[in-house]
Amino acid sequence: MKSFDRRTFVKKSLTLSALSLGANKSRAEQQVRVLLPVMICSRGRKWGERVLQPAWQKWLTSQNMLDAVETGANVVEQDPDDNSVGYGGLPNEEGKVTLDASIMKGPGHRCGSVAALENIVHASSVARLVMERTDHIMLVGKDAYRFARAHGFKKENLLTEKSRIEWLRWKETLSERDDWLPADHDTSRNNERITGTINVLGIDDQGNVFGITTTSGLAYKIPGRVGDSPIIGAGLYLDNTVGAAGATGRGEEVIRTCGSFLIVEKMRDGMSPQQACEYALKRIAQVNTDIDFNVKYIAINKKGQIGCAQFKPIKGPICSAISSKGMQYINGKQVKI
Ligand code: GLY
Fold it and tell me: Nearest Cα to 246, choosing from 113, 151, 104?
């Protein structure tokens, strides 16, 4: 792998609590648990609240968990403050913003996805239409765009001025052997390759499981590159008898280890969500000698147990949950290799 340097509702009433499995167990073995219904997302405080509050409101008013996870995903997709998802996402190496998204619904084991979608803000909503209004699972590129337009989505420019300027700076400081020059005052290089992404997962009061992953993908990617987010089993997977998992971070590593599928299958075999997330990260480490990227996994099972883990050091909550008792923030665990 190349270094990044280069290039009320209470039907079944719920208690929200962080449960420890035992007073003398280490923090690593603690298992966060909430009672159903519940929604989680792969962000800490700021985005956790922004995403999950309206998503939960949607659940309360509609009693439809698929609508609720979509509402949550749509919040980030339309917010220019986030440069890794939807409008305002960082573009590919040619300066075009292209989006990947997937959606899954436990009942019927249904799924849909879009990849390399341009000029449409709500990629996750298009993925939902692929799931609900076609007999296919994945649409890509210009044809995904045409499908979205046929369903009434507006054509929009997804590249904000802020993201254009960041992209231009990346291009100008990439190499001294091309003809692009940075501004005189700009002496630093912009080597950061953002792989933000968001997963929103939910389990309703009947125990049905739903999930979305949505992203603008790896910043400055080669045009045509598709990450893990729209790949069922990689960036998102769920099983209505087990639970759900989602990935963020370096998509190539998640694809080649079938990360989310692996987590759900390990939960089926009896691992807690926390154990399964850590297991899947260790699997990545088995096929990489040099972990110079981040991958983060979040997972939830049907008991309402939540897991989250990543390679990067943990500086605060990396996952948020909401239920009838309000928000909860989960620090998760760093898997050190
Ligand atoms: N996980 C997002 C991507 O690699 O595209």
Answer: 104
